[in-house]
Write a structure and sequence with these properties.
Number of strands: 7
Strand content: 5-15%
Structural class: alpha/beta
Radius of gyration: 33 Å
Helix content: 40-55%
Distance between the termini: 112 Å
Number of helices: 13
Order of helices and strands: HEEHHHHEEEHEEHHHHHHH
Length: 470
């Protein structure tokens, strides 16, 4: 009897063990499905965050600040009477209004003097039409037709009598409105017609932009050669559309020139198509991996992107997971504070070297640990790969701690992207790249954009403009 009871008890226990094993297997399967789902959702969240950065929306991100800056002009000596516009030397029209006899309250007014006010405005624009009468003849040797060309002429005579072309100033204004202002051809057409009295078709403006880009092609190639020889370059890229497919708009800039290029990819091959494989200057990117393949270049990773990543991690981190991003943020901010002290001459060169060494040692000790949180572990791996590129700006005063010049260079491109979303053809992409590069570089070098465009169009033989000696 005891043996039967014990055997039944054993069978019952075995059955219970089988049920529990089956239940454990089911729970493990559910946990595996949930882990995969969580990983999928985390990937979607990360992609949504990156997409939010790329779109550069015209509204603020996140919650408004609790104590924002007051609107209006800022205090300082740059405002007030010192910033008043000077009195014009020439007055074209004068209007005199006598003192009113009655006050709005009904009382009589005693005249005491006069107030002089000046209003500066755009006068009615009158079209300026130039007629070029060019002599032509026939070569006695090769029987080729030879036509004269005036130095102010921007287009070549093609044997058509009475042909009307758009002048260089109008083309320069249209290019500025299109490339810098981000206006569509239809809006430019309205401005040219209602403000300047030009009646143009949108197709005429498009062809004029293409012709200007073709004449500016040597200048664009010269800018590429200059950027390859530049000691410091700030690169960046943003999403683009080319013939309805995904592409990228690259920007390579410094304080003196900027080169744009619309390319199909976002890798090392596209970067070398502008910079070249042998670039040996200083690159200050945002941490994108293909720039690591420039073996001869010195890299300075963008500290602003690292600080932004710290803030994003802190938004969702809990408990002990907040320690690592807080420590990284503190080290990065300490480095920026050292830069500010150096620029204010509040620290000696020897003191800066000592502080720089201590800062690198702090970062090295922090990265020697192994964070248990997956997000922190991935961030730590990124910092280890770029560990020697974070504080280069403390050793080289000529470079920035962030790649803000590249971010600023991409703003006009973002404005264009909101208007047209990209280009429909390779020729349109090339036209946009050339015009954006020439116009922004002209502005950086202090040239008048309309003068540069006129010089390019009037040059009988296309040649580089905007050279360093100009």
């Amino acid at each position: 009897m005891d043996e039967r009871i014990s055997l039944e008890y054993v069978r019952e226990l075995l059955e219970r063990i089988r049920r529990l094993e089956k239940q454990v297997a089911e729970l493990q399967g559910q946990l595996g499905d949930r882990d995969r789902r969580i990983a999928e959702l985390e990937g979607q969240l990360e992609e949504a965050r990156r997409a939010g950065k790329r779109q550069a929306a015209p509204f603020s991100k996140g919650e408004p600040k609790k104590d924002p800056q007051r609107p209006g002009r800022k205090p300082g000596k740059g405002y007030g009477r010192q910033a008043v516009r000077p009195i014009p030397a020439q007055v074209d029209e004068s209007f005199r209004t006598p003192c009113p006899r009655r006050c709005p309250c009904g009382g009589r007014v005693r005249p005491r003097g006069e107030l002089r006010l000046y209003e500066v405005d755009i006068p009615p624009v009158k079209r300026r039409v130039r007629e070029f009468v060019n002599g032509y003849g026939e070569c006695l040797r090769c029987a080729r037709r030879v036509t004269a060309r005036h130095p102010l002429q921007t287009s070549n005579a093609r044997g058509l009598v009475g042909r009307v072309h758009i002048g260089p100033v109008a083309i320069g204004l249209a290019a500025h409105l299109k490339v810098v202002g981000g206006m569509s051809y239809e809006k430019i057409q309205v401005v040219m017609e209602q403000v300047l009295g030009f009646k143009l078709a949108r197709s005429s403006l498009c062809r004029a932009m293409t012709r200007l880009a073709q004449k500016a092609e040597p200048t664009y190639r010269g800018l590429i050669e200059q950027i390859r020889a530049s000691p410091v370059v700030y690169p960046d890229e943003t999403g683009w559309k080319l013939a309805g497919r995904k592409a990228w708009l690259w920007a390579f800039t410094n304080l003196k020139l900027t080169v744009y290029s619309v390319l199909r990819g976002r890798g090392y091959a596209e970067a070398t198509s502008v910079l070249g494989k042998r670039y040996c200057g200083i690159l200050a990117p945002d941490g994108w991996a293909p720039y690591q393949r420039f073996e001869r270049a010195t890299l300075q990773t963008c500290n602003a992107h690292l600080l932004r990543r710290c803030r994003e991690i802190l938004e969702t981190a809990t408990r002990g997971a907040v320690r690592f991003p807080r420590a990284v943020k503190k080290i990065l901010q300490h480095g920026l504070a050292l830069r500010d002290r150096r620029e204010a001459r509040q620290i000696s060169p020897h003191g800066l070297k000592v502080a720089h060494g201590r800062l690198k040692a702090r970062l090295e000790r922090l990265l020697a640990g192994r964070p248990t949180n997956a997000i922190n572990r991935r961030f730590a791996n990124h910092l280890r790969r770029h560990q020697n590129e974070i504080f280069v700006y403390l050793q080289r005063p000529e470079i920035e701690a962030t790649n803000w010049p590249a971010e600023q260079a991409l703003r006009p491109a973002v404005v264009n992207r909101k208007t047209c979303a990209g280009n429909r053809s390779e020729r349109g992409a090339r036209t946009l790249s050339v015009l954006m590069s020439v116009l922004r570089t002209a502005r950086q070098q202090g040239h008048r954009v309309l003068d540069v465009v006129a010089a390019i169009l009037r040059d009988p033989v296309p040649r580089p403009h905007l050279s360093p000696c100009r």
